[in-house]
Amino acid sequence: MNLRDLRVNGRRLRSTLEEMAKIGATPGGGVQRLTLTDEDKLARDLFVKWLKELDLEIIIDEMGSIFGKRDGKNNDLSHVMSGSHIDSQPKGGRFDGILGVMGALETLRTIHENEVETERPIVIVDWTNEEGSRFAPAMLASGVWTGVLDRDWAYHRTDINGRRFVDELERIGYRGAFPAKEWPVHAYYEYHIEQGPILEREGKTIGAPKGIVCLHWYDVYLEGEANQVGPTPMAGRHDALCAAAEMILKLNQLPAEMGGNMVATVGEIENYPNSRNIIPDKVHFTVDIRSWDDDLSLQAWEKVRKDFEKIAQRRGCPIRIEETWRVEHSPFDQRLVQRVVDTAKELGYPAIQMISGAGHDASYMNQVAPTAMIFVPSIGGRSHVEVENTKWEDCEAGANVLLQCILQSANES
Ligand code: GLV
Ligand code: MN
Ligand code: MN
Q: Is the dihedral of CA 388, 391, 396, 397 positive or negative?
């Protein structure tokens, strides 16, 4: 058989995704599968069951990432790897991450049932905690695997209830023995929904990101003075929530001041004691700054940090800032990016190059191996929400591009 004629089974991919979407399903049509929760465990168990059906060698590493390895003709050659993440945002969608894992599974099922032998081994991966919404930062396990983040630092990250990553990993039974340490990878492909509006707007089926923007995360802690809201005059208050409100709006104005297609967001806030008749005395909020330009993002942070300090001083609310996480912008391997575009066109799918504004494990993988991604359109450009949606035919198209890219890389000498 000519490998170029091989295609995935779109119906099977759809039913696989629908099966997964039952785990952690939300009433609004999305999923909530926060990392290392019972829902994450159930989805992992199902994924492992499916890997076993393909006779893959299953490896679970010390960060809980799950790898399924299919032998090549020459197992001494470096591997071709593909995957993404099974975890989701709170009230997230049915496609973010899981499409890349189930898409890679579908390509391996197709390769398996057609008894295709490749030169190189092919590995499918589910990276633990890509989202970072339960345990910050995002891309935690791929960060450790690629040697950028320290395993023990990762183990001690805590969620909002003070539970440690390592204890939750142990609890769900996915603390593997295999070292979370990079091995040679010939090519890494990550298949994902776009999560933005560009492909739909341009009428394209496939996006080939040239790379991923930088991601900078900060945590801001403010102290105020609690008091009865009724008898306490407005003058002389130290209201931590008002200080935060001013800061949040300052941050919101920052991209317009800086340019460079920057985006800046406060997405999470905790207010204490959170009673309508007590002046807030403690606030924590997060800051997310992204741009293709690392230096501009650092300059932006310096600027807004000074503004934050001035606001804190004026309002008498001491401020503490943690510089939680920085990932540099990540320009992908141009040869592989071009391969995604060419393959899409060969298969008859309109394609463009673009930039990913979302973070992906591909960002860290790109630091250790030639990397590219395949995007398919998000309906209405909506993602990280329950209504996140992608047409089934586009899911199939992206999986076909993934299959053909994997086959090309896996048969390279
Ligand atoms: C990952 O989902 C991100 O924050 O872009
Ligand atoms: Mn994702
Ligand atoms: Mn996401």
A: negative
**For the segment 81-119, what is each residue's pLDDT rounded down to a tens digit?**
999 999 999 999 999 999 999 999 999 999 999 999 999
Query: What is the distance between the alpha carbons of residues 347 and 359, in angstroms, rounded to a whole number?
Result: 27
Ligand 1, atom 2, residue with closest C-alpha: 131
Q: How far is CA 412 from the centre of its chain?
A: 29
In 10 A of CB 250, how many CB atoms? 17
Phi-psi region of 55 (alpha: psi -120 to 50; beta: other; left: phi over 0): left
Query: In this structure, are residues 288 and 265 in contact, taking their beta carbons and an 8 Å threshold?
Result: yes
Q: Tokens 């005395």 identify what position?
A: 281
pLDDT at residue 315, rounded to an integer: 98
- Ligand 2 centroid–CA 358 distance in Å is 8
Q: Report d(CA 120, CA 72) in Å as an integer.
A: 4
The best mutation among 128, 131, 190, 266 to test binding of ligand 1, ranked by most ligand atoms within 8 Å of the C-beta, falls on: 131
- CA 134-59-102 angle, 5° bins: 65
Q: What are phi and psi of 49, to 5 degrees?
A: -60, -45
CB 138 less than 6 A from any atom of ligand 1: yes
Predicted TM-score of the model (pTM): 0.97
| 287-297 per-position pLDDT tens digit | 999 999 999 99
Q: How far is the CA of 281 from the centre of ligand 3 (A)?
A: 32
Helix and strand numbers, DSSP H then E, in the chain: 12, 14
CA 325 to chain centroid, in Å, comes to: 14
Please tell me if the CB atom of residue 358 comes closer than 6 angstroms to any atom of ligand 1. Answer: yes
Residue 67 token pair: 């790898």
357 CB less than 6 Å from ligand 1?
no
